Amino acid sequence: MRSPFHLSGGPMRAEHDHVLSFLRRGDARELLAAGPIPVDLEDVDPRVSRAARRIWGTRMIHEHQSAAVFARLLPQLMACGAPLDFQTTAMRMAADELHHGALCKSVVEAFGGDAPTPPTVATRPLPEHEDADPLEGTFRNVLFVSCLAETIAVAFTTEEREQTEHPWVRAVIGQISADEVLHARFGWAFVKEVAPELSTEARDRTSRWLRLAFAYLEREEMLEVPDVTPPSEGLRREALSVGVCDNQQTRALFYETVREVIVPGLEAVGLAAERAWQRRRNALS
Ligand SMILES: [Fe+2]
Ligand SMILES: [Fe+2]
């Protein structure tokens, strides 16, 4: 099976390049358009190179899944009568995630590796929420994807961008981080718009569902950053400079972001988020 991010030499290639030209953001626009800058492997400890290839390869696979998530949100947004701007933005975000996947692949290659072949290129459907009507179900899916997962992604990538020095890796993280800001804002704007339309019962049901959402989020995020400490301060710094995070720092940032950004944001739209976070334990069993 080929990598999901290979390009054809056919007639759609020019259209693809055109789409990328308007998806690129910020200072790194020209650098990204010019193409990857290889990492000088002589300058990098082999343990750091291996970690970089593994981490950026895993990210590539996650970005592939994220593209499918936003693409699948479109029919849900249509079915619940979401404003058109939310629908077009969802399509932009699906394109952003495909772009991110290709950028992650380019980082693996910059470290002299081959992009991994995912175990499957099949993607997962979005949850159905049988106890909810289309509006409430879409509300929960947008809340999970954007207000939880993407808000965490903003915190992580903002931190990583600050510490990354290699110009290509820094440009890639800068692009991803800027896009994730939009992806999170999308969710916060949607829940603010829709929450007043939900009945008290729907808000209560969603607050109860939040326990499961928080438990799932915590489990998935922690799996990505196992509880290990870098072997030395020198290696920790070197890893950070090429976009390999310090797991302890990232774990702490996860809990800080949930407590200081996500929980208060959801409380502000009338959800019992504090209580759901406190009671998330055992929600998955
Ligand atoms: Fe992404
Ligand atoms: Fe995203």
Overview features:
mainly alpha; 10 helices; 285 residues; binds fe (ii) ion; globular
CATH topology: Ferritin
Shape: globular
Oligomer: single chain
Provide the number of structural domains: 1
Summarize the structure.
By secondary structure, the chain is mainly α. The protein contains 10 helices and no strands. It has helices spanning 12-23, 29-34, 46-79, 84-110, 134-163, 167-194, 200-224, 233-241, 247-268, 273-278.
Explained architecture:
The structure is a single chain. The chain is mainly α. It contains 10 helices and no strands. It binds fe (ii) ion (2 copies). One fe (ii) ion binds next to α3, α4 and α6.
Question: Secondary-structure map with pairings?
Answer:
Layout: H1 12-23, H2 29-34, H3 46-79, H4 84-110, H5 134-163, H6 167-194, H7 200-224, H8 233-241, H9 247-268, H10 273-278
The structure holds fe (ii) ion (2 copies).
